[in-house]
């Protein structure tokens, strides 16, 4: 059965994701590290010890082909795509095999600029309309996942 996995550390759409997953009768699993706490009645919460990428590796271990993963982490997105899962970020952008290489390359360039002492722009402030956009895209992903 398809499940929704949420990389919840710093994720503004945890509650929306769980509510929408419930509409499709999809179980939700929230992953976070010990510095965060979630109490979401309609989801399973898995708290992982702090450590570099510990939550990402726990998600990767549990995700299965056809699952939906909510994350803003390009590296994690690339790994779950390789396992055949569907992946979306908090703004409703779906990560695909067609766009992940470009996203990873852009991230790499930003890191090189910052390491050299340069500055890069941070993300724009999240607007309320982003939740509606996310919800619509997440619904489309759920419908696709169920049909697979």
TrEMBL record:
<dbReference type="Pfam" id="PF02639">
    <property type="entry name" value="DUF188"/>
</dbReference>
<dbReference type="InterPro" id="IPR003791">
    <property type="entry name" value="UPF0178"/>
</dbReference>
<comment type="similarity">
    <text>Belongs to the UPF0178 family.</text>
</comment>
<protein>
    <recommendedName>
        <fullName>UPF0178 protein DFR61_12019</fullName>
    </recommendedName>
</protein>
